[in-house]
Specification:
This protein is of the alpha/beta class and 181 residues long. It has five helices and five strands. The termini are far apart.
């Protein structure tokens, strides 16, 4: 079975394909969809077309994507969300279930540390998949997302990423625990 991992972006969308039929992840391919358009609608159309072609060409069985995270810039976060939404709709239109993973979960699953740097992710992707060279950062991230999904299928990824953030005693831990004063 082929897993397609996606690292969405409005300028560059990374993709990574791995085969898990043998029980061990095997590299199939990776790369980047480089967006050439200036108009937002055309950018999203290029993402959709590129992913649609990949899904059809490789007969993808499962689809994994990074969850949205808070960016420093609101405009960047909105563009990322639109690129992500386009990728999700493309997968859904091809009949694929969509699995989402937080950045911290991906880093934890692939490197063992939820605060790993991009270079550490690239290094582990190369090591785990036995690659001769490191793929571009966006493609390596997409491969890491696909690997995380493969590990999650084996029950090796926690549902909640490890967090070093402390919460105060007696304070609300979840939205359901919130009680106005």
């Amino acid at each position: 079975m082929l897993i397609l991992g996606i690292d969405p972006g409005s300028r560059t969308t990374g993709y990574g394909l791995i085969d898990i039929s043998s029980g061990k992840p095997v590299y199939v391919g990776s790369g980047c969809i480089r967006i050439q358009a200036d108009d937002l609608a055309q950018k999203l159309a290029q993402i959709y077309a590129g992913l649609s072609e990949l899904i059809a060409m490789h007969r993808v069985g499962e689809f994994a994507i990074e969850k949205v995270f808070m960016a420093k810039n609101a405009d960047s976060a909105l563009k990322l969300g639109q690129a992500r939404g386009t990728a999700i709709v493309c997968a859904a239109n091809h009949g694929l279930a969509v699995s989402e993973y937080a950045a911290r979960q991906i880093k934890q699953a692939v490197t063992g540390s939820g605060s790993a740097e991009k270079t550490q992710i690239q290094h582990m992707v190369v090591a785990v998949l036995g690659l001769n060279a490191s793929p571009p950062a966006d493609a390596a991230d997409a491969l890491a997302i696909a690997l995380t999904h493969a590990y999650a299928r084996q029950g090796r990824v926690p549902s909640q990423p490890y967090s070093r953030r402390r919460t105060g005693r007696g304070k609300a831990q979840r939205w359901r625990d919130f009680r106005p004063e």
